[in-house]
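pinned: reference chain
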Amino acid sequence: MARKPNARQRLRLLSEKFEPLLQAAFLAAIDDLRSNAQITRIAERLERGDIDGALRALNVDAVAFRLFEEGVREAFVGGGIAATAALPILREPNGARLVARFDARSPGAEQFMRELSGRNVQVVEDVLLAARQHMTQGLIYGRNPRSVALDIVGRVDRSTGRRTGGILGLTSKQEEYVTTARQDLLSGDPDRLRHYLTLKRRDRRRQFEKAVEDAIRDAKPIPLHLIDRMIGKLSDSYLLLRGETITRTETIGALNASHRDTFDQLVASGNVQANQVRKIWRATKDNRTRDSHRNLDSESVGINELFSNGLQYPCDPSGSAREVINCRCAVDYRIEYFTNLA
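pinned: its structure tokens
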């Protein structure tokens, strides 16, 4: 009989299943926002200096991310079912086998979904903050209001009919990177143009690179339409990174949270006592693993205790960003009540 996958293997298999689905849901949400933004109205409001009115015309709200939220819920439930299936055989005092099922409506599951909704509200706030920053910079530099609107929602790709290249969906920090890159390309300053060529996420196609090299060598301005394309590609790259980051963090968080809830449900049933359950941190041992998490590998604490980094489990949303973002670690649970094991 094939051996059951361990905690690390199970987490990897489940994340490989759910991450692509969540990535697609996140990008679909951004496409929805782009498609429903009122570009003419945004430009009109910016012409009047009315940033709040321009933001309202973006029509950004949390409803656009409901499918993403539902995908995270499915990952949570899938993780709980998998964790339950991996439980050791438990028996009652009379020898009868205990039946364990994962309850997707448990108090822990309901709390997880409430917290997820709160995090999605934060994503929306981040989207609006980045858009506000870009609008403010556009007004400061006297840019054409419609161009600013298109910078935000993207320009139509004639080959697909879809809008691409907007900063909508980026973090405020990513928006700053994009704005600085545009200013570098517009500056004509050789040092700033060289700075653009250091950006790891720029599009390296020869047409773009040559335009920058020519501008440095000949003090030749880069055509505006080419700058729009270059910055659009940079924005798209940051959007993919943003989607990957949110997707990985939420997927791993959901899977580890449901693993925890599986054992909380066992304890709540009275079949296992909380002081009989230990949890063990399982680091993903590769060159992308944080040193602090690698050092946590095999650390064991009680089910209701915190690991030494202050987390209940890897990707615990109550933790700091530096401990949580892009974490891929797993958590294992052990029941130290061997008289109840077959």
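why pinned: The two ends are 17 Å apart (CA to CA). The first helix runs from residue 7 to 36.
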